[in-house]
Design goal:
8-stranded mixed sheet, 17 helices, 23% strand
């Protein structure tokens, strides 16, 4: 190592020490902070290599590496502001780089009036390419190479969403993936839950942190960066997806599927010769052979679809796991470059489309509660390229798949494409959902704190959600089954940022109740101890008196699409499905009626 390189490493370490204190820290993290190789694209210690670059792509960044690198980039460019927006299950701070605003707070970001883009990597701790590509992007921004974006765009970047899973490094994780051979993290978080299944039930600290960020910063665009196992002979280095819910804003989906994705796919093919397409794989034989997406992705438990039903332009990337580690990072970086170029050039349209979706009323519309994939009108060219089985030097009897870089043994086939979802069952979106407090316990005598519903012009005499008082001790672990159910529901409404009111006096209700004809649960646990519940039945007219302490959820709010899927009794991804209503629905014998009412009129408070 030359003396110049040693001096460069010391300079980088001094910069890191003068910015913010790094928690933890092993020898590898210290080397990352110092930029110990002294090398970078510019030869400057201000912009050191990332851990994969320093190790010839045999290792991925640890949490301390990521935090140290983010701080170095912030020290190099005052346009990069660092903050945190929540915690992991094990208490690690979730980092956020805010670029394009005068500061890192939500108020400062919103005051710019710019297009806001949230990007997260590493939702699965073994899918590390998004994490590394976002560090590259921060380095490029720190060098001043992306100033054109920042004139009308604010970037909100978290490279390491599943920070706990990232730290559970093993050389045996994701065994078929082509590196990094030095190991990678786990798919699940420290609680053993998949963060990409928590968009509706809001069970993890990480998902609740993300939902709060979305509520406070209100991004127009959001990206979730993954790596897919895919089919072993896929020729696509990058696949992508949007929100697949049939209930999405049609204008938003057109902007993504008809403009952004085709344009960036063409640009990457022209510039680099790389082939991209929608997420999925080939299945079926003969006339049934086709490229298919995954109908499961139409459910908002998946982050990209969760974005969509929140009226955010949601994008999912899936780098191809059998390409080399370096190639996967590079292709993800290209996706970020091209998509952010598009966003910067079309900012006013994007903001207008999102604003229109937030204002659009879906009351009275037939919306999907279940869906299936449908075939596109025309076939698409699907690209194939073979992979090789490569001996893993660190894991016995478990080779991984690798498609060598520069592999030209490429073939194509025109195949049907099943890539969009349509409803198989629908239900009408009401004006309000109502959860009657049938326990009729007396309301708390304490004054209700004003919540978002009141701040937004909600009816007087109603306690607001997201911080408002909950009469009847709803927040307590005990209480009646109805009280426990309401406590669990309102806790999750708060987490999502959905507004509601809690009534403080009895009132008349005129609407519908759902008579249950079938009430079953799955035999196997899913995502912890959940056993998916399914209801069948029909709505019927109903009039009753609502006791004080009942919950009213208006559908005249921006998150109405999400609210519909959470509350409808036949939704395949709502509170009912996830057992959140089980204090009532799980009783034996089961109840005759669903414990949530609906109405096309607002109760007279």
């Amino acid at each position: 190592m030359s003396s110049r390189m040693v001096r460069g490493a010391g300079t980088a370490l001094a910069v890191a020490a003068l910015t913010l204190t790094i928690t933890g820290g092993n020898a590898e993290a210290q080397a990352a902070r110092a930029g110990a190789t002294g090398a970078s694209a510019t030869g400057s210690a201000r912009f050191p290599l990332t851990r994969p670059e320093r190790t010839d792509y045999t290792e991925t960044s640890r949490y301390d590496d990521v935090i140290a690198y983010m701080k170095l980039m912030a020290a190099a460019n005052p346009q990069i502001h660092l903050t945190t927006y929540g915690y992991t299950y094990e208490g690690r701070s979730l980092p956020l780089a805010v670029i394009g605003a005068p500061g890192a707070t939500a108020a400062q970001v919103l005051a710019t009036g710019k297009t806001r883009v949230y990007i997260q990597g590493n939702i699965h701790g073994g899918e590390v390419e998004g994490k590394e590509a976002l560090l590259w992007l921060l380095r490029s921004i720190a060098k001043g190479e992306r100033n054109a974006w920042l004139r009308n765009t604010v970037l909100l970047i978290n490279p390491i969403y599943n920070a706990d899973g990232n730290e559970r490094i093993s050389v045996a994780n994701r065994g078929s993936q082509a590196g990094p051979v030095g190991g990678m993290g786990t798919r699940e978080n420290a609680l053993g839950l998949d963060l990409n299944r928590d968009g509706t039930k809001m069970e993890t600290a990480e998902a609740r942190s993300m939902a709060r960020l979305l509520t406070e910063y209100q991004p127009h665009v959001a990206m979730d960066l993954h790596t897919t196992d895919g089919s072993s002979n896929s020729g696509f280095n990058m696949t992508y997806e949007t929100s697949l819910s049939p209930n999405n804003s049609k204008a938003q989906m057109s902007l993504l599927r008809d403009e952004l994705l085709p344009q960036i796919t063409k640009a990457v093919k022209t510039k680099y010769g790389s082939d991209w397409f929608y997420y999925g794989g080939v299945s079926g034989t003969g006339a049934d052979r086709a490229w298919r997406s995954d109908a499961e992705l139409a459910k908002p438990r998946y982050t990209s679809t969760y974005y969509g039903v929140r009226n955010i332009l949601g994008l999912l990337t899936e780098a191809y796991s059998y390409a080399s580690f370096k190639t996967r990072i590079t292709e993800t970086y290209w996706f970020l470059e091209e998509s952010l170029d598009f966003v910067a050039k079309h900012g006013p349209r994007i903001r207008d489309v999102v604003a229109a979706a937030n204002k659009e009323s879906i009351v009275g519309q037939e919306l999907a509660v279940r869906q299936q994939l449908v075939k596109a009108p025309q076939p698409y060219e699907i690209v194939f390229a073979p992979t090789n089985s490569v001996r893993n030097p660190y894991v016995a009897d478990r080779p991984y798949r690798l498609r060598p870089d520069g592999n030209t043994n490429r073939t194509t086939e025109m195949l049907p494409f099943f890539g969009t979802a349509v409803a198989t069952e629908t239900s009408v979106a009401p004006r309000v959902w109502v959860i009657p407090n049938v326990s009729q316990e007396p309301a708390s005598s304490s004054a209700a704190a004003p919540g978002p519903a009141q701040a937004a012009g909600g009816p007087p005499g109603a306690a607001g959600g997201r911080g408002g008082a909950r009469p009847g001790g709803f927040g307590a672990p005990g209480g009646t089954p109805t009280e426990r159910m309401i406590a669990s529901v309102t806790d999750r409404l708060d987490a999502h940022g959905i507004t509601y009111t809690v009534t403080q006096r009895a009132m008349a209700f005129n609407g519908e109740r759902f008579r249950i004809s079938g009430n079953t649960t799955a035999e196997q646990n899913y995502q912890g101890t959940h056993r998916a519940r399914t209801l069948t039945g029909a709505w019927e007219a109903n009039q009753q008196t609502l006791p004080a302490g009942s919950v009213i959820i208006s559908m005249e709010q921006p998150l109405a699409r999400l609210t519909f899927l959470l509350m409808d009794p036949r939704s395949d991804d709502g509170f009912m499905w996830w057992n959140i209503l089980d204090p009532v629905l799980g009783a034996s014998p089961g109840p005759q009626y669903y414990p949530v009412l609906r109405s096309m009129s607002v109760p007279n408070y």
